[in-house]
Design a protein that fits this description.
This protein is α+β, with helices and mostly antiparallel strands. It has 3 domains: 163 residues, Cysteine proteinases (Cathepsin B, Chain A, Alpha-Beta Complex); 92 residues, Orthogonal Bundle (Muramoyl-pentapeptide Carboxypeptidase, domain 1), CATH 1.10.101.10; 160 residues, no CATH class. It is 28% helix and 20% strand. The protein has 14 helices and 17 strands. The strands form 4 sheets. It has a 7-stranded mixed beta sheet. Strands 3-8-4-5-6-7 form a 6-stranded antiparallel beta sheet, sandwiched between helices. A two-stranded antiparallel sheet has the order 1-2. Helix 10 crosses helix 13. It starts with 23 loop residues before the first helix and ends with a strand. 36% of the residues are buried.
Length: 469
Amino acid sequence: MNSTIYKQYDSRWGKKAYPSGSTVGGCGCGLLACTHVAMEQESKKNWTPDNLRAWMVGKGFAIRGNGTRWEGITETLKHIGHKNVVRIYNDPMSEAWKELNKGNRIGIILFNGRVAPNGVRWTSGGHYVAFTNYRVKNGKHEFYTKDSGARNHSGWYSYENSMKGCIAKLWIVERVGKQTNGSATTTVAAAVKATTYKPTTAYKGTLPSAVVKSGSTGANAKAVQTFLNWAINAKLTVDGKIGAKSVSAIKVFQKTYKLTADGVFGAGSKKAAQALINAHKPKTTTTVKKKTVTKGPAVKKTVVKKQTNADKVSAKALELAWAPGTPEKKYKRKGGAPTAAFKKAFKKRFPKGKINTGCHTYVRLVLRESIDSKAMPSLEWSKIVKYFKNSPKYKEIKVNYKQSQLKPGDIRIHYTATTHHIWIIVEKNGKLYRAEANQGGKNERYAHLNGSTSGNTKKHKKDYLFRPV
């Protein structure tokens, strides 16, 4: 872990623009937090905020008088080498513990202005702080923080005592590259590779009855080690102790069979393991005495699945999406090009309108073209919510922010006094995405299929979810 802690008001950069009209000293906590994370890599151990300031300002991540955009934190972490960025929304953080317990995790915390149970206040408004180590000690979740602000909250702080109720957002990344620790360095394990090995015999062991991960012991640990020796020729010692070598073998199995390579042998891994075992069960043959039976001509029955309203909405949303991708990367300042299907539908429903739709207009177009010719008669946000609540074509689903709750065709609305957005959940290649409209540069607008699934689990206090019936 790099021991250097920078301050926003350091004379070397404190008065520099972030962006024009604001300074690093006043608004640069997000910049400093990203710098502290970058410095954990040996190749970046001597970085200062100047290594990222111009890039973040140039990308539009710095907001005059208001700090750093959330998306700017995500994209900057990717820019410094972290391909997978997990963003957790709001307390409590049960999902965060799952990610952090995978090990080798660092990241950035966005604190709100509340006071922690032990009286610690991190900020009076909003403040980004990097954490470069994490541990569970005496039953408490502890972060090693690097605070660039004047409150100087740097060091080990427990969530339960010093952070509970104070966290607005949390970005978690896995360490990458060669890591720094003062003068000593360690190397993070190389990326897990899949194997081409395939078992040739039937499996004679059992599978675990519980989740197995680093530190697991006992019969379930032995079952996983035995299975991995059969499935990928892992050559593990079946000692019932899941250490680094066993975790690495679990990851190889997961990578080989297209699973998330997190080193945790859970429900998904067990399902894939059972499928592999079933595929290698010995075939049995049964001799049956033939009996001649006279039959009439075979009648082929065709079963047609009835398409639900939700299916219709989802299909139409996919049809009218302009292109897959995210606006920040694919369409910034250009807007993309509408498809022929979108043009035709738009001209049919709005013959006098220009094709530069906003999020609510896109959803209205999809619904009118699929199940609801009178959808959303008003584009005032309070009336939009009221319409869905009162229309017999939809039922409101209590939002619990779990991905498993969502279904294709669902209409999601985020509505507060200052921010509003509406989109449709769709399924593609087995994953749920957002079909939505966003405004690009120079007021250009485009309807697209968002290539990220993370937005489906954002935790907003005033979200609504409606399902076509």
